[in-house]
């Protein structure tokens, strides 16, 4: 009966999110990367990104080779959204299954993973974190999964150091380190922080066998990061073109930006929610987390230092560039904080939840029900009310573009999306004028240029909404 219960819960939780995936549309960078792949060829487009835009060799691979628009497959973006949800849930559930008691079922771990992911969706910022964006998935959300999978495979390797299984886990950890270094700078820094702390631990424990493996992974990560961050021509070109007014090596300026970021982060109510999140999930965490010898040998004050200094160290590359440092850091820092903070709390405060009838368990179930109901209400409302209107107007746009391609003058004027209330699930912000995601009233706007390039028209713009006098 428990398996049936968990299955029903999973269906109720994820049905609107999977359904909304079939209403999703590409965003501006999706069109841009798809146009490059189609016009320049896949490999040349990949090299172009590496030389002119970014050294993130793995992210660039995803943006070019896994982008459905690279294959002129507009509807394919919907299947990517569905796949991204499956990958996120499965990855988090797998990580949880590796550190939970063996008697817990797979469906339970998927349910627990859903609680974590849905909480992240509630507190994640609008910018750089849209769940229905292929570009954001490639640049930020996929690296988030690497960030939690890598230490889990390291842990599994250290449990079976000399076996074939241990060797397999070491190889997977090495591959994840390479991919993480080639994903984004924040992932590189946080993976480095994890490996440095593991090395320090084994130095103190005088465990040379495990230390040499960590040293190998550290060198592998550093070499991959050097290629992605330092050696790639695209980084220096982008910094000189985009970030010229904000890029700085000055320690004082970097320190000021870091302090500003920390103050901003801990002044947000969403950060407070993360700090009390372990209370949310105490009832689900009851008796499931096994005590790890690795953590038990580390003082709790250092565990806390590891969590909170990771916030500073992880966001440091963006403080150096200075360009939208807060917005570009918060989404992954929140992910880091949710998992690392909760894990430390559960490992050190597990005795609080031993009694299923305790006040903490009752409070936990109430809090879980409240926040899950909050986001589920938004998701179901958007699926039932907003999404059909949203999709029908996009289909009209595509028909207008198809007609315009038959004409000599391929300038297209479209109507704005109207009658849609953003609920920050699929529809993330105000559509239309000044939108992060929708087409603008000027044909020279970044969104419009990328849209026009992919569809093969001269230009596109939307008619501004006239304000009533």
TrEMBL record:
Keywords: Membrane, Transmembrane, Transmembrane helix. InterPro entries: DUF6056 (IPR045691). Signal peptide: none annotated. The chain crosses the membrane at residues 6-24, 79-99, 106-123, 129-154, 211-232, 261-284, 304-326, 332-353. Coiled coil: none annotated. This is YfhO family protein.
């Amino acid at each position: 009966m428990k398996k049936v219960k968990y299955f029903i819960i999973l269906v109720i939780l994820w049905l609107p999110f999977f359904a909304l995936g079939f209403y999703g549309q590409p965003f501006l960078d999706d069109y841009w990367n798809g146009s490059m792949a189609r016009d320049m060829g896949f490999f040349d487009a990949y090299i172009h990104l590496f030389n002119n835009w970014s050294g993130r060799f793995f992210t660039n691979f995803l943006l070019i080779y896994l982008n459905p628009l690279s294959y002129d497959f507009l509807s394919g973006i919907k299947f990517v959204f569905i796949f991204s949800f499956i990958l996120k849930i499965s990855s988090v559930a797998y990580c949880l299954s590796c550190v939970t008691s063996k008697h817990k079922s797979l469906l339970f771990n998927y349910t627990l993973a859903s609680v974590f992911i849905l909480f992240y969706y509630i507190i994640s910022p609008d910018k750089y974190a849209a769940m229905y964006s292929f570009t954001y998935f490639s640049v930020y959300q996929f690296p988030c999964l690497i960030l939690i999978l890598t230490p889990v495979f390291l842990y599994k390797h250290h449990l079976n150091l000399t076996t074939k299984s241990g060797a397999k886990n070491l190889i997977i950890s090495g591959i994840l380190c390479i991919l993480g270094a080639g994903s984004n700078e924040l992932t590189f820094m946080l993976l480095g922080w994890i490996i440095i702390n593991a090395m320090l631990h084994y130095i103190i424990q005088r465990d040379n066998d495990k230390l040499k493996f960590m040293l190998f992974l550290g060198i592998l990560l550093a070499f991959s990061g050097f290629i992605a961050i330092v050696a790639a021509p695209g980084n220096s070109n982008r910094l000189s073109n985009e970030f010229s007014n904000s890029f700085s090596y000055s320690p004082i300026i970097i320190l000021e930006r870091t302090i500003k970021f920390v103050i901003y982060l801990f002044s947000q109510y969403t950060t407070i929610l993360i700090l009390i999140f372990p209370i949310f999930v105490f009832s689900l965490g009851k008796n499931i987390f096994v005590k790890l010898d690795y953590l038990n040998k580390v003082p709790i004050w250092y565990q806390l230092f590891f969590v909170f200094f990771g916030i500073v160290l992880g966001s440091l590359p963006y403080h150096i560039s200075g360009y939208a440092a807060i917005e570009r850091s918060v989404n992954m820092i929140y992910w880091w904080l949710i998992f690392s903070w909760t894990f430390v709390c559960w490992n050190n405060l597990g005795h609080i939840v031993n009694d299923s009838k305790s006040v903490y368990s009752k409070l936990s179930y109430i809090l879980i029900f409240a926040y899950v109901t909050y986001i589920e209400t938004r998701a179901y409302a958007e699926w039932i009310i907003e999404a059909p209107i949203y999709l029908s107007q996009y289909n009209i746009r595509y028909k207008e573009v198809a007609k315009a391609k038959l004409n000599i003058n391929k300038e297209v004027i479209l109507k704005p999306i109207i009658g849609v209330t953003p609920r920050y699930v699929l529809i993330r912000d105000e559509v239309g004028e000044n939108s992060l995601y929708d087409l603008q009233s000027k044909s020279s706007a970044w969104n419009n240029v990328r849209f026009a390039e992919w569809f093969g028209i001269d230009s596109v713009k939307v008619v501004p909404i006239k304000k009533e006098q």
